[in-house]
Specification:
This protein has 480 residues and is an alpha/beta fold. The chain is built from 19 helices and 16 strands. The protein folds into three domains: 58 residues, no CATH class; 135 residues, Aspartate Aminotransferase, domain 1 (Alpha-Beta Complex); 252 residues, Aspartate Aminotransferase, domain 2 (3-Layer(aba) Sandwich). Bound molecules: pyridoxal-5'-phosphate. Pyridoxal-5'-phosphate (PLP) binds next to helix 7 and strand 9. Pyridoxal-5'-phosphate binds next to helix 7 and strand 9.
């Protein structure tokens, strides 16, 4: 064979399709897709991107790799080792077991818009509304696709064609292009700003409302940044009292939707929907997947008349959420009937409360797992022959901090114990190795160190982190 072009060893597609290993793949994935994968592999061989194997088994393993690679879904489960609890890029809140079960059950048929007692058509909007009322004290509630949608719906339903009064200090951008001035404009309302960046008083609102044609007052919770120093803002209850005189509705864009006392999480005060309702606002908007810890959704609670106007608006139909989301949100809300239980069962709340000592113990166990098997056999693949001393990762456990994330608690640092790997110039490459693991592990790097924070890793996933770290060990040669 010497001197011969190896590409001449590439067999005909039909010949390989008849092999038992190929028939197995066809049984699992279908003939047309496997044929296409085979052609892709042959194409790579002809182009010199893949070596041409010398044996039938070599072809089999290349095709299996191609099938595994091309068959990966686009949206994959990942292990979040960043320590950012509500990581928007990683899907925000991980859901409680109760929510996951309810969502799986709802994936079939359900009484989404069907009244089981009468057998007639029902309303999608009844689901979750009772629980939302119960937990916030509001007269009524409606659930839509996300928090931004809830704000847009509230503004559109109550204030389209009229002015919306917003404090200068609350002209915020939430992230993902959600900017208050643009949302007001998109709702077909005119923005009327009052006060200054650092101070807005009751009298500022009062003067503007007197001038007339105001559809709503919008108060925005500054959830993702902090102001300090010479500041003043008008309390919600004061605004409500002021607006009542002219019959102007007050909308509160609250953001997070924490349903328990933040003190129970060891965090500074975060306003709750119940507080806004008690203050007398007409509509409060909050997210389902921030500190509430449920699926992506937006909840509007408030006065019955205001909620009815929101439900009657065509935008509500455009923003409606699906049965699986409703089921997950309902199961999550149900956990809040007992706040203690909510804190134990809802992963985002539980993760926020995990003490640093516990994270340190888990980090020690993970590192012991890495060291114990670094010189072992098999796993990690290609790290060196069994019995050969394994490469060592320079790893240590250090004090660090985690973040709440999701645009909430911008200043809160949760004390943590993190695993730090000295990667030097290779930090990005090592992060890529962790992401190439199955399932991918997402960590962060800081000044040449790869940082793993187990706060956001479920304890049953610690073994995955250890295995991913071993795969870094397997990639680096002994002695650097
Ligand atoms: C996050 C947030 C929103 C948007 O909610 P999503 O669920 O992300 O759409 C709106 N307002 C405030 C104050 C927020 O913090």
């Amino acid at each position: 064979m010497t001197g011969q072009d190896p590409r001449r060893r590439i067999p005909g597609v039909d010949r390989l399709l008849d092999r038992p290993w190929c028939r197995e793949l066809i049984a699992a994935h279908g003939r047309s897709w496997i044929t296409a994968r085979l052609r892709a592999v042959f194409g790579d061989m002809r182009a010199g991107r893949l070596p041409v194997p010398g044996s039938d088994e070599g072809f089999a393993s290349l095709l299996r790799e191609e099938v595994a690679r091309a068959g990966l879904p686009s949206l994959r489960r990942v292990v979040n080792a960043t320590g950012v609890v509500l990581h928007t890029n990683l899907g925000r809140a991980p859901l409680a077991e109760e929510a996951r079960r309810a969502m799986a059950a709802a994936a079939g048929y359900g009484n989404v818009e069907f009244a089981l007692d009468s057998g007639r058509r029902g309303s999608r909007y009844v689901h979750c509304a009772g629980l939302a009322r119960e937990l916030t004290g509001a007269e009524d509630a409606v659930v839509v696709n996300n928090g931004a949608g809830a704000v847009a719906l509230a503004l559109t339903a109550l204030a389209a064609g009229r002015g919306v009064v917003v404090s200068h200090g609350e002209m915020v951008e939430i992230g993902g292009g959600f900017r208050i001035p643009e949302v007001v404009e998109a709702a077909g309302a005119q923005l009327v700003t009052v006060g200054t960046t650092n101070r807005t008083r009751r009298a500022d609102y009062a003067r503007t409302i007197e001038r007339g044609d105001i559809g709503a007052i919008l108060k925005v919770h500054r959830s993702n940044f902090a102001v300090s120093g010479f500041t003043e803002e008008t309390e919600l209850a004061e605004l409500v009292a002021l607006a009542a005189g002219s019959g102007t509705p007050v909308i509160h864009d609250l953001g997070s939707g924490l349903l328990i006392d933040s003190a129970a999480l060891g965090l500074p005060h975060e306003p709750t929907p119940a507080e806004s309702v008690a203050a007398g606002v007409d509509l409060v908007a909050f997210s389902g997947d921030k500190l509430l810890g449920g699926p992506q959704a937006g909840v509007l609670v408030g006065r019955a008349g205001a909620v009815a106007r929101a439900k009657a608006h065509p935008l509500c139909r455009a923003l409606r959420c699906d049965k699986v989301t409703l089921a997950g949100l309902e199961a999550t809300l149900a956990l809040y009937r007992d706040p203690e239980r909510a804190r134990e069962r809802i992963p985002a709340l539980r993760m926020i409360s995990v003490p640093a000592e516990e994270l340190r113990r888990r980090a020690e166990a993970v590192l012991a797992g890495v060291a114990g098997q670094a010189r072992g056999t098999g796993e990690g693949g290609g790290g060196g022959a069994a019995g050969e001393p394994g490469p060592r990762l320079a790893a240590e456990i250090a004090e660090g901090w985690s973040l709440v994330g999701g645009g909430t608690y911008p200043d809160a640092r949760l004390p943590s114990a993190v695993i730090r790997l000295d990667a030097g110039e290779d930090a990005d490459a090592w992060l890529a190795v962790l992401r190439a693991h199955d399932p991918p592990v997402v960590a962060r790097s800081r000044k040449g160190q790869v940082v793993i924070d187990l706060r956001t890793v479920a304890p049953h996933e610690d073994g995955i982190v250890a295995a991913a770290l071993r795969s870094i060990g397997a990639k680096i040669s002994p002695g650097g």
